[in-house]
Amino acid sequence: MWKLRSAKEGRDCITDEGLPLRTLCDLKGRQVWEYVTQDEEPASTKTAELDACERARDEYVRKRRDEGVKHSADELLRIQQCGPNYMDVVRVRKKGKQKRSASSTKEEHQGTPVDRNDFDEAVSGGLDFYQQLQMEDGHWPGDYGGPMFLMPGLVITCYVTGTMGTVLGDARVTEMARYLRNQQNPDGGYGLHIEGHSTMFGTVLTYVSLRLLGAKASDPHCARARKWILLHGGATLIPSWGKFWLSVLGCFDWDGLNPVPPEVWLLPYSGKSGIGWAHPGRFWCHCRMVYLPMSYIYGARITGECTGLVGEIRKEIFLKPYEEVDWNKARNECAKEDLYYPHPLLQDALWYTLYKLEYMLLPGRPLHFLRKKALAETIKHITYEDENTRYVCIGPVNKVMNMLCRWHEDPQGDAFKMHASRIPDYLWVAEDGMKMQGYNGSQCWDTTFAVQAIVSTGEASRVMECVRRAADYIESTQVREDCPGDLESWYRHISKGAWPFSTRDHGWPISDCSSEGLKATLALEPLVGEFISDDRLDDCVNVILSYQNKTGGWATYENTRSFAQLELINPAETFGDIVIDYDYVECSSACITAIAAYLRRQRGGGEWRSRHPRATLERALRDGKRFVESIQKADGSWYGSWGVCFTYAAWFGCEALEACDGVLGTDSRERLERCADFLLERQRPDGGWGESYLSCELKQYSQLPEDEPSHVVNTAWAILALIKAKQHLRDPRPLHRAARALLDQQLPCGDWPQQHISGVFNRNCMITYANYRNLFPLWALGEYRSHVLDLGGK
User: Fold this and answer.
1) What are phi and psi of 215, to 5 degrees?
2) What is the distance between the alpha carbons of residues 344 and 538, in angstroms, rounded to a whole number?
3) Is the CA virtual torsion 55, 60, 65, 67 positive or negative?
4) CB environment 573-609: b (16+ within 10 A), e (fewer)
5) 498 by DSSP, 3-state: which?
6) pLDDT at site 8
7) What is the Cα–Cα distance from 254 to 298, expressed in whole angstroms?
8) Who's near 587: CB < 8 A, 6+ residues apart?
9) Do residues 317 and 248 touch, judged by C-beta distance below 8 A?
10) What 8-state DSSP symbol labels residue 538?
11) Does residue 647 contact residue 655 with C-beta atoms inside 8 Å?
12) Which of 345, 403, 632, 774 could form a disulfide with 419 if both were Cys (CB 3.0 to 4.6 A apart)?
């Protein structure tokens, strides 16, 4: 039986290969799944939970097969936290609410306020259910999976390093295989993410992973995947990241991969040199931290042993014998199903030039001294990343690459073992199996949102134990110091005072996470008192101000360090806009609203308590507002880059403008009403909104199928946006219908259903935010209560 462990409880949950964990915060926020043997659980508890887990697994398989439902619902977490029969607990009665289908007419939904008794019961029931999911250390755990290309890197790394048994172990191998089998599409292929169409990237890497995890070539899932691969042109058409991992395994020749030369790290960084603007230190940090270890592995040609199994896979995934593959031709081949960002001609010319020069850098050649120097430089930066994240690393891709680099440096060294200890941090178990998450979790992000949602309901005083635990987690997760050394030479931004996305041990500072952390802290102060000092709050404001770009907008982890033209050398055919850190409406809005909240706190306290002058903060707001206005589309919408998609961005855009109007005295009514009209034109017959992830790819609003109900998360975002746009003062009837749609979809236990995937990154890859289905409906209903119901709904 799998058990979720957090903080101190999970201290000993490391792999057999690992060493004791390093931590700055007593491991608060760490969430790891541990396999508990039968002897360690009472028989009655074990039987009831095991039966519930098996029913959840069977139901997932049935729904995927019969109804096309691809997303798991985090049932194992709910069974553990709420009990095996949690669905039988009735907190929300359906009395007084008429169930409506998505095909209902607008006339059936009178624009009248929601029944107050039904509404209060729904909010209280939802809050009572959601607080059960909170962990003892104060954070809310949840599934942050979705992408299908993450786990294969881990499996290949463990196979190459000979640690399948010690790092993964039998229980994890079994659950990983379950997950991969469950995610197969009807045509036999696998997508870039769990809801996506089949791609060569997803299918080849999943096929290889299944084989390395012990599946035979004759396994039905393998046979169907192999058929898809061969029918669509074979593995030479896999995108560049797939070519890389196959080369590491020994199933692809390094000559078939466009060069990833570590020598680029030896270029001058200064922009005065001209070439310095293209230095990888100026890349978006996720891009930089992936291509850093990738260049080391490429430069050192780290390749696994050609075992019998590797030899079999070579025979299974290509259209012709392995020895006859034209590797030079394969360099630029990519399946049409995968091609989101085609290489421009300039990039092809660059790769050809580097491909020809690579020969001179190999051992025994004239320029090999440069290769040795470059490898020394890259491993230095890899080590810095490892040490400053307690071996968690910024994300799952560079995590396993760094782990492979440190193994190559010293197979028996402590660094590799420290990496092994942190592998469980990235693995999540749900009813569909064990998956690798897109981060070590979204703990801080979800908790800061959850706090604001709970406060908005007006019922926080009823759940004070939950509130205090959340405050403790937020306090312990704030980053207290900058990274050591000369930050510019390590290409790092200041971090003292920031909040990260997940845990303090992870530690990478982010603009919107810092801002949401600050807002959550300020929202909690009336309830628990001032639990974070003014100096530490000022440190956070300092980080937020430092992130603002000359455009007035805010990017993610760092300032924008180079020009958008660098996207011409984006080598990842599967992802868009990855080379530099761009300004986003979400990050900009989070920073604007945090500064506005901080200004209101200072003004309300009488004496000015901040070391940041009021004029500085107001200037940042004015510049930020101009940026948000500049990227609003003619139809009133904003494009969302981190959630699906226009409904998500509408909330942030409207929130930013409304906050500036409140603090600066500006008037954004025309812009807010345009955004409201954009949303109202897309309101569905059942009163809600249902936006497909295709909006992110196509960059135009895409509805979910008409025969599906509206999406509770999209509906909640739209409600939040409309209230910020003052729609309740123009015509509250659309808000009544939207609130009723949320109540109609709520389950009797107080939970809301898991629907389509809600998160996105790099335009084209979707990711799960399992907590969104609970916290955003609560937040939206809380705002509806205070701005609409409490005002009489008129």
Assistant:
1) -70, 145
2) 45
3) positive
4) bbbbbbbbbbbbbbbbbbbbbbbbbbbebbeeeeeee
5) coil
6) 77
7) 8
8) 511, 512, 515, 547, 553, 554, 555, 556
9) no
10) H
11) no
12) 403
Please, are residues 210 and 240 in contact by the beta-carbon 8 Å criterion? Answer: no
**How far is 790 from 320, CA to CA, in rounded Å?**
71
Q: Contact, 527 vs 467, CB < 8 A?
A: yes
Residues 582 and 560 sit within 8 Å (Cβ to Cβ)? yes
Active site amino acids: 512
CB atoms within 10 A of CB 205: 27
Q: What is the mean pLDDT of residues 148-159?
A: 98
138: tokens are 């104060």
Give the residue ranges of DSSP H helices in 529-613.
534-547, 585-604
Which one-letter DSSP state was computed for residue 166?
A: I
Average pLDDT across the chain, whole number: 95
**Single-letter amino acid, residue 128:** D
Q: Alpha carbon of 737 to those of 186, 288, 432, 733: distances in Å?
A: 37, 46, 34, 6
The pair of structure tokens assigned to 92 is 């929300």
- Give the largest CA-CA distance in the chain: 82
What's the whole-model pTM score? 0.96
Helical segments of 701-771, H only = 712-724, 727-730, 733-745
Q: How far apart are CA 477 and CA 497, in angstroms?
A: 10
Q: Per-residue pLDDT tens for 691-734? A: 999 999 999 999 999 999 999 999 999 999 999 999 999 999 99
Which residue type does 447 have?
T
- Which residue do the tokens 């907590």 mark? 771
The pLDDT tens digits for 266-324 are 999 998 888 999 999 999 999 999 999 999 999 999 999 999 999 999 999 999 999 99
